[in-house]
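Minimal example, chain plus adenosine-5'-diphosphate.
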Amino acid sequence: MLTVEGLVKRFGGFTAVNNVSFRVEQGEILGLIGPNGSGKSTIFNMLSGTLIPTAGSILFDGAEIAGKAPHRIINSGIGRTFQIPRPFHRLTIFENVALAGYYGQGSHSRARADEAAERALAMVGLPTNRHAGVDGLGAAGLKKLELAKALATGPKLLLADESLGGLDEHEMDQAADMLRKIRDELGITIIWVEHIMGVLMRVVDRVMVLDHGEKISEGLPSAVASDPRVIEVYLGT
Ligand code: ADP
Ligand code: MG
């Protein structure tokens, strides 16, 4: 579904992502882990079009998307969440999600956006009524809202950035189960970024590890967790 080759991002003289290549197969959950500052969000920003790669190729369903505008990439079927949720506080929960559906599906149909919002909110377990406001949501609620907004855009590939940040242990388990349910029930392929291994390792099919912008390990969770290079990086943090 996704083939990334030789991806590079430089900010001035600093190389945030250095020659990273990987593939994502249809229907899998790929975990992408690495310490803070290792380049995870920068990769997501290039996959979703908010950053233009310095070099490299991103093939999605056989089409080159590197450097394409974010709305084109969303319309082609890549949805994302943001590490730091920034909902519109003057809109209701429903309106926030329907808005994402309206622009993200490209059809600009109010009725379709509303339907997509209802389905997405039900999927993540947020109220589907039209009145509930955003301000009552805690950390877990805001993460669910991020997921619902991404789902409302109708993605084939979902990029989930740090879905566990700020959650307690029980909420982390719930969030992990939710990502698996999104894959199992909706058939959506997922790349899931976290800086800690923890609960991610029990849900992903494969995992890839970044350090200082470079891929240092990739494979089954059990193999990666016992890779000396990975252990070294995680002991150092
Ligand atoms: P991660 O998501 O793995 O924590 P990021 O991808 O956000 O890491 O950042 C990787 C590195 O690139 C960090 O050192 C960060 O400071 C740097 N970086 C990210 N975005 C920019 C930017 N727009 N300008 C300059 N440096 C950036
Ligand atoms: Mg990040």
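The pocket of adenosine-5'-diphosphate (ligand 1) is lined by residues 11, 16, 34, 36-42 (CB under 6 Å). The first strand starts at residue 2 and ends at 11.
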